[in-house]
Amino acid sequence: MITFTYPGQGSQAPGMGTSWANEPSWELVEEATEATGRDVGLLLLEADAEQLRQTRNSQLATFVMSMLALDAVARVGLLPNAHAGHSLGEYSALVASGVLDFAEAAHLVAERGEAMQLASEEQEGTMAAVLGLSDGDVESVCEEAGPNVWVANYNAPGQVVIAGSPDDVNTAADAARERGAKRVMQLQVGGAFHTPFMASAYERLTKALAKAEFHDPDVPVYANVDASAYDTARVWPRLLARQLTSPVRWHQTIRRLADAGCRTFVEFGPGNALTGMAKRIERGVATLSVRNPADIDPLLESVGAGGDGEVALANGEALYAHERLVVAPAAGVFKPAEPDCRSARIATGAVLGEVSGEPVRSPFSGVVMDYLAVDGERVAINQPIAWLRTD
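The chain above was modelled as a monomer; its predicted structure follows.
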């Protein structure tokens, strides 16, 4: 069982989009720019560390980076059995599973980032990571320190993030050290996220979520607020709103996934924070990450290492490391090229057919082995259309 995971705010870095700028997936940057009215390309290529540290910028930039990596992997046909995202990453998980349209999710992420930044400016807050104490000890420390400090993230065993007013967070940090915490680190963030300090952001985001269209997911998505798996659309507006003022239960989420049979976790987007957490939470699982295009072939080889180079797909088919899938660029009715391309050697960019008038172009060169969709079939976006043996 494979789970795709998506990081939250804090993993961003200047120039993180550079390696993607000439990839087919870069078209998502243009779509996100149109959906949000923000220059997303500028954020990914030219923004400095200080600009990216702003909540309104870091959230949108990180979300689009995760989507670039996901789109590139979807184009080769690797699909998961479940999705989970940390905080902001939950929006990436919902797009990946089909719950939200990409453009609509980009708009919601921009709203979320703006709402959280404004809430932080209205009420000063901070966050700190407590290392080396149990969840229960950190909860007790917060209860004793004052009324305005709470657990914000249950990240991994011995790694819990607290948040609230600077005074109460500092008091809780001192108490945690007295209880034996190995280290308490102040986080460079602009507010007390996932606490009641985000109440005004909750109100603004709730209004935006009420206008969004949600769909049932292709595979289950695990929620931050309760670490439970959901396979219906109707719960997500409420869960996404609650997430702003509730702790992220990532530790519990990974444990639930492991209990359900997940043995491989793949992280999509900048950084590798979730990869490190998964290793700490559950021993013996495989952890992989896709941060740039060069990570895709190693991912296919690593996932397939247990089966003679064969990568298992969610639909039960298989893809070998020297083979690739060409997927539908949009939803609609498929019509193959005439004459069709079976057994033909094609170059990168060759047209294999069309979906509702939009050409299906191969991102790879090689020999077309067969079509996986038939003339007149209604296909979903990213549904495999053909497979080929690469050069």
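The chain is about 35% helix and 25% strand.
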